[in-house]
Design goal:
This protein is α/β, with parallel strands linked by helices. The protein has 9 helices and 11 strands. Helix 2 crosses helix 4 and helix 4 packs across helix 9. It binds 3-[2,3-bis(oxidanyl)phenyl]propanoic acid and fe (ii) ion (FE2).
Amino acid sequence: MPVALCAMSHSPLMGRNDPDQEVIDAVDAAFDHARRFIADFAPDLIVIFAPDHYNGVFYDLLPPFCIGAGAQSVGDYGTEAGPLDVDRDAARTITREVLDSGIDAAFSERMHVDHGFAQALQLLVGSIIAVPTVPIFINSVAEPLGPVSRVRLLGETVGRAANKLDKRVLFVGSGGLSHDPPIPQFTSSPEQVRERLIDGRNPSDAERKAREQRVITAGRDFAAGTATIQPLNPHWDQHLLEILASGELEQIDTWTNDWFVEQAGHSSHEVRTWIAAYAALHANGPYQVTSSFYRAIPEWIAGFAITTALTLSSNHTK
Ligand SMILES: O=C(O)CCc1cccc(O)c1O
Ligand SMILES: [Fe+2]
């Protein structure tokens, strides 16, 4: 069965701290294109790779990867809350293949997910329950992180597993590219913040709002040039997009985690979700990027990209 890919940056500052209308229109057009691409492909299943931002996964038990056979969206930043429509059988099949191949992914029957998953699903297919989904968490925020090469191998095995499902599978990656929003680092945080990073589920409405407001304010300051957060890096972003489009994903294996941070900020690790999605596509044969949008958007604290891709064998088949 054919497979396809859509990878996209997310940012909860969309609609909250907007850039010029011209930029919004360009992003809207790129999302319209992605939505049409997905509608034309008509996926039976979405396998979505996304990070978490201390809303669903915490330092009390922090796996590098986790596959959900059931998942619950926390509804941060006004995203849709509640259960995702998870294809439990597909999740178990994929998990077995991943574990058999020697990738020690965690597994959850009730994975808690945040805007990393929900915003992507809402923007691409309208809702967190529009299309049966297998959600795959990739830690991209909470250090320490393992080598990025492992993410490629995870994606590859997920791609092989998806190939055996007898379903039209869309791989989605959600996150990135260069950006450094104000997410606390455990080692440099005071005790009270550490506690929230260890076990911060179910914050009060006031706590959640205060946190969200801090990020929104940071976006305003960043766009005004008065924030201390790291600049976006459009050159690095373009370079990454070129490598992903080339299919030579092993090139990224040599990039160290420190280099990601130096070049593109702490949250650039979120491109792990893109690497996994592209590796999953790659496992199904040579592919072609069919559309690629990029803008550096400081208002959203995001090197913001949207790409779509198809394996050559899925082109023009249905
Ligand atoms: O609230 C947070 O923890 C971070 C929100 C956030 C902001 C900009 C870009 C992102 O990718 C993102 O996730
Ligand atoms: Fe993010």
